[in-house]
Amino acid sequence: MPQAPKRKRDRAATEAALLAAARARFTLGGYDATSVRDIARDAGVDPALIFRYFGSKERLFEQAAQTVEDRREAPHDGVAADVPTRLLHAAMQQAAPGSAGGHPLAALLLSSGRPECRERLNAQLSNDYVHALEQLVDLPDRELRAELLTAWLLGITVARSLAHTPALSEACVDEISPYFERVAAVLLGTPAPVAASSGPATP
């Protein structure tokens, strides 16, 4: 009986499956604890395709660790006053329990024993968060204020993606926003938002 002709591989679909599998693995265990075979098995393909499509495990990690800000429109584009809220939305979306692969920054945090990963983590925090927030501050200690708010955003990511703390993991962005916006206003020296009647009570 003649063999059925092999179906042509859909490269785009295979690359997407490998990236999703890699992101999930890297955000769970970091770079060193993740093998090429693990990623390929999760994606349901031959490990050789990782090298064919990405060149190396290192290159695959680089792409898997990109944030939404790297891959799409940056959340700091647009109205300056909305920057903190858009950064919070981006952090919450990527760190949401059950989201595809978890937050890319989690992969860098878990892999921070590698100098190149520490450098990339520093660069992504500076470029995607600190730099955007600094532009909103007209005070002498603008960098410190921007970094403090960035540290809180990173803490939200860690709590949801890695620690899975119950209250924060289950909270939606609308529940967190009133607290976040008030603290952001204090740190950035901007007018405090008007609290909605249905939002959390002011401490």
Q: Would you kindly provide a written description of the structure presented here, covering whatever features stand out?
A:
The protein has 203 residues and is an all-alpha fold. It folds into 2 domains: 11-64, Homeodomain-like (Arc Repressor Mutant, subunit A, Orthogonal Bundle), CATH 1.10.10.60; 68-188, Tetracycline Repressor, domain 2. Helix content is 63%, strand content 0%. α1 crosses α4 (57-64) and α9 (142-163) runs antiparallel to α11. Residues 68-78 have low confidence and may be disordered. Residues 12-72 form the HTH tetR-type domain. This is TetR family transcriptional regulator. Keywords: DNA-binding, Transcription, Transcription regulation. Pfam families: TetR_C_16 (PF17920), TetR_N (PF00440).
Write the layout of secondary structure elements.
Elements lengths: L10 H19 L6 H8 L4 H7 L2 H8 L3 H4 L11 H12 L9 H7 L4 H20 L7 H22 L2 H5 L2 H16 L15
Helix pairs in contact: 1-2, 1-4, 1-7, 6-9, 6-11, 8-9, 9-11
Short structural description:
With 203 residues, this protein is mostly helical. Helices cover 63% and strands 0% of the residues. The longest helix has 22 residues.
- The name of the CATH architecture of the largest domain is Orthogonal Bundle
The low-pLDDT segments are 68-78
Helix content: 55-70%
Which H/E pattern describes the elements?
Answer: HHHHHHHHHHH
- For the record, what CATH class of the largest domain applies? Mainly Alpha
DNA-binding region: 35-54
Domain HTH tetR-type: 12-72
GO molecular function: DNA-binding transcription factor activity; transcription cis-regulatory region binding
Organism: Streptomyces capitiformicae
